[in-house]
């Protein structure tokens, strides 16, 4: 089956990339030693792509509202992906990825405006899908845009990986690399890599020029007329035969993998730690998802992010069984968690008159160790904000922020920008934004505090002693944290009220709208507790919940994630929660209760489909046990009885029934009677969950 680069492919790409980053997040965090050893690159990329995926989903939903057959164009979908990444970008790596997506979107928008895609699109003048040449141009523009957004580019980083991917895509599209850019960037003759000492500290370096790989990609593309320079447009006489889009995507991925392998030798800080560049590894993961989308073939994962440090045999180069959580060197301390974020009103402008300026010395004494066991040097703060401003004001802002600090990346356009910089004076960086326009969604990260928290993570905060004998609810008084709280996701208002009454902080999931990690982060913050147990209650939320937990740990909250797959498992875990016992003991008990709970649900088929139990028709009642369809029936009561009998045949002491919206209470009464008659010594309890998606949820303990 041929694969095309269309709007549906963009949606699939987002889903696969998010899943792949979820799997790789911890390993990428572990190798994050450059530009700052703050251990958050994987988490930042996950959060950025998550925002992009939600934006693409919203674009599809918006078109569906106008008509069942309405679909966004390729340009609309990639534009939504780029905008979502822009407004949700986290960290240096996420900001650069957002600009790469914008570069791709710009190429597709130009194709639309010029009507130049007639040879590769199904509908001339309206880009519905694109071929290999268009994809190669989009990747070239992506690499070029990302490099131009970075104030001081450095080779051996994600920029090098992006340029190499674009060059490989251009070659696969029939454009051979030419000129002085055919060779890969080499380490400097001084032995200090591509960056000076200042550049290594800055993270975006002080190396001049745009790098050999970028020259290769740019030179090859412009020589063929298929490049990204303004006004350069190829003719049918100069273009090579159209290359399959899947082949171009695969070539880009393989080129990125090769460049990633070389990053260790391009930066001394990577060589000393024995790792590849974390941002580059993240980009390889995203490009692997694109290749899988457009070829239908799963890509071979790159070698382990960890390489052998000089003089160490702990991890051999490319060893496939290397655990990302292993230490790079026996003597090195554990890698720090991502940095803490100072919260600000998500949409309110920064008020310089009432804000606290960051102390000039970074606000901390001493130099906590980073990922590689060496003291963290350089600016003390990472400052990120969205900015509404015109191009002229942003140009002035670049100059001012470049003088204040380093790792400066400003991405965006059309009046909306994402600003990222590392500085010692965070207040001055924000004030510069105020002078340029309207900054909002401000995040300030203190690197030193993050490292100290990681180094001291074995010593959790003490639980405050209670003198009134009252149980905590997870909602401490303002200014005073509770000892412990439970945060869980539920699918209905009835369950939300039930769990809130039990003292939990609840996130209500709506049909087709799973909560983002930001919503889980907000819920953990609302819980206002030193320790939090997080119950996602959905297998699809495992990566989202893991990212939220990682982010909150950077803010000093001890978070334990129990990977519950159904809300009935979450109810079982909540039922045994006891704040008075130790945290680890409580988590073990809750995990045991959830794991001992088998789960089932009844759903109504929306269309004819193949299932493990046979072919179902629209309107059939489906009985699912542990996520698999095992019964197809015509009646809700009869199907529920069959499901209960099958589950209880393996034993059970307690049945939990959760009724959905519109389901009469009589259903629970009749099922309780059935259990009493057919299964001795089995208790039954029922709740009105009011979940709209499933008429009945069942748990067996």
UniProtKB/TrEMBL annotation:
<feature type="region of interest" description="Disordered">
    <location>
        <begin position="452"/>
        <end position="479"/>
    </location>
</feature>
<feature type="compositionally biased region" description="Basic and acidic residues">
    <location>
        <begin position="452"/>
        <end position="469"/>
    </location>
</feature>
<dbReference type="Pfam" id="PF21645">
    <property type="entry name" value="FakA-like_M"/>
</dbReference>
<dbReference type="GO" id="GO:0006071">
    <property type="term" value="P:glycerol metabolic process"/>
</dbReference>
<feature type="region of interest" description="Disordered">
    <location>
        <begin position="298"/>
        <end position="375"/>
    </location>
</feature>
<dbReference type="InterPro" id="IPR036117">
    <property type="entry name" value="DhaL_dom_sf"/>
</dbReference>
<feature type="region of interest" description="Disordered">
    <location>
        <begin position="172"/>
        <end position="208"/>
    </location>
</feature>
<protein>
    <submittedName>
        <fullName>DAK2 domain-containing protein</fullName>
    </submittedName>
</protein>
<dbReference type="InterPro" id="IPR004007">
    <property type="entry name" value="DhaL_dom"/>
</dbReference>
<dbReference type="Pfam" id="PF13684">
    <property type="entry name" value="FakA-like_C"/>
</dbReference>
<dbReference type="InterPro" id="IPR050270">
    <property type="entry name" value="DegV_domain_contain"/>
</dbReference>
<dbReference type="Pfam" id="PF02734">
    <property type="entry name" value="Dak2"/>
</dbReference>
<feature type="domain" description="DhaL">
    <location>
        <begin position="8"/>
        <end position="292"/>
    </location>
</feature>
<dbReference type="GO" id="GO:0004371">
    <property type="term" value="F:glycerone kinase activity"/>
</dbReference>
<dbReference type="InterPro" id="IPR033470">
    <property type="entry name" value="FakA-like_C"/>
</dbReference>
<feature type="compositionally biased region" description="Low complexity">
    <location>
        <begin position="191"/>
        <end position="208"/>
    </location>
</feature>
<dbReference type="InterPro" id="IPR048394">
    <property type="entry name" value="FakA-like_M"/>
</dbReference>
């Amino acid at each position: 089956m041929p694969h095309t680069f269309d709007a549906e492919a963009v949606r699939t790409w987002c889903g696969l990339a998010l899943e792949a980053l979820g799997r790789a997040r911890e390993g990428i965090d572990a190798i994050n030693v450059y530009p700052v050893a703050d251990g958050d690159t994987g988490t930042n990329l996950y959060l950025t792509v998550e925002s992009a995926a939600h934006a693409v989903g919203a674009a599809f939903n918006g078109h569906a509202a106008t008509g069942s057959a309405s679909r966004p164009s390729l340009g609309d979908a990639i534009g939504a992906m780029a905008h979502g990444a822009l407004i949700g970008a986290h960290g240096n790596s996420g900001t650069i990825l957002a600009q790469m997506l914008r570069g791709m979107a710009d190429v597709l928008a130009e194709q639309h405006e010029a009507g130049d895609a007639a040879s590769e699109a199904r509908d001339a003048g309206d880009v519905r899908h694109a071929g290999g040449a268009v994809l190669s141009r989009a990747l070239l523009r992506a690499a070029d845009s990302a490099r131009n957004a970075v104030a001081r580019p450095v080779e051996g980083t994600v920029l090098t990986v992006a340029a190499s991917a674009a060059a490989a895509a251009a070659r696969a599209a029939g454009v051979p690399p030419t000129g002085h850019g055919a060779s890969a960037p080499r380490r400097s003759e001084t032995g200090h890599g591509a960056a000076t000492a200042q550049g290594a500290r800055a993270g975006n370096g002080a190396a001049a020029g745009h790098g050999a790989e970028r020259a290769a990609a740019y030179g090859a593309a412009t020589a063929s007329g298929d490049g990204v320079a303004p006004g350069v447009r190829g003719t049918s006489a100069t273009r090579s035969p159209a290359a399959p889009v899947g082949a171009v995507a695969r070539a880009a991925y393989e080129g990125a993998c090769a460049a990633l392998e070389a990053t260790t030798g391009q930066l001394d800080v990577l060589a000393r730690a024995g790792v590849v560049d974390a941002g580059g590894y993240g980009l390889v993961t995203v490009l692997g998802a694109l290749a899988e989308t457009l070829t239908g073939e799963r890509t071979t994962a790159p070698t382990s992010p960890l390489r052998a440090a000089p003089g160490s045999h702990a991890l051999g180069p490319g060893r496939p069984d290397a655990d990302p959580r292993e230490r790079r060197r026996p003597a090195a301390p554990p890698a720090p968690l991502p940095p803490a974020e100072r919260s600000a009103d998500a949409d309110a402008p920064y008020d310089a008159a009432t804000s606290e300026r960051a102390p000039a010395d970074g606000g901390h004494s001493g130099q906590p160790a980073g990922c590689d066991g060496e003291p963290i040097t350089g600016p003390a703060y990472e400052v990120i904000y969205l900015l509404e401003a015109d191009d002229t004001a942003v140009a002035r802002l670049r100059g001012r922020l470049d003088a204040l600090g380093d790792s400066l990346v400003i991405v965006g356009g059309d009046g909306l920008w994402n600003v990222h910089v590392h500085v010692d004076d965070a207040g001055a960086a924000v004030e510069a934004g105020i002078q340029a326009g309207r900054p909002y969604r401000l995040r300030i990260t203190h690197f030193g505090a993050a490292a100290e928290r990681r180094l001291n993570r074995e010593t959790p905060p003490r639980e405050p002693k209670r003198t009134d004998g009252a149980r905590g609810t997870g909602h401490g008084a303002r200014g005073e944290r509770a000892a412990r709280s439970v945060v869980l996701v539920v699918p209905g208002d009835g369950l939300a009220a039930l769990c809130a009454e039990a003292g939990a902080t609840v996130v209500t999931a709506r049909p087709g709208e799973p909560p983002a990690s930001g919503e889980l982060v907000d819920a953990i913050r609302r819980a206002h507790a030193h320790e939090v147990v997080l119950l996602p209650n959905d297998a699809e939320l495992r990566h989202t919940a893991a990212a939220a937990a990682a982010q909150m740990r950077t803010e000093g909250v001890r978070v334990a994630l129990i990977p519950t797959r159904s809300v009935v498992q979450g109810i079982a875990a909540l039922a045994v929660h006891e704040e008075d016992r130790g945290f680890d003991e409580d988590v073990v008990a809750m995990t045991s209760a959830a794991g001992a709970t088998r789960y089932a649900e009844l759903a109504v088929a929306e269309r004819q489909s193949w299932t493990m139990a046979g072919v179902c028709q629209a309107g059939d009642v489906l009985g699912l046990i542990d996520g698999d369809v095992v019964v197809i029936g015509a009646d809700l009561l009869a199907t529920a009885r069959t499901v209960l009998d099958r589950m209880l045949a393996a034993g059970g002491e307690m049945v939990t029934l959760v009724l959905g919206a519109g389901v009469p209470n009589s259903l629970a009464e009749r099922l309780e009677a059935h259990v009493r008659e057919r299964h001795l010594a089995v208790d039954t309890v029922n709740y009105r969950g009011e979940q709209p998606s499933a008429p009945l949820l069942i748990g067996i303990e």
